[in-house]
Design brief:
Blueprint: H1 2-26, H2 31-60, E1 72-75, E2 78-81
Antiparallel strand pairs: 1-2
Length: 87
Amino acid sequence: MVQSGGSFGLAVLVTLALRRTASALSGGTATAVAATQGYALAFKGAAFAMFGAAVVAFALVPGRPRPAAGGLELADGVLEAERVRVD
């Protein structure tokens, strides 16, 4: 599944680069400059996708659970619970 997602993402980036290059070439831009513009667009698209993935990861990945206030204490690396008297 991961390989399919990676290949799909690469296909999208290559398509962006080729379309931008073809557009620049039809406008009369030199071949090397048009190719550079296409690669730059693909790189920006990849950067945008990675930024979006980082935002989603930070939003969805839970942090470390915090102990309840006063319920548990950490003494000398050992977790100790308070004694509670039950009547």
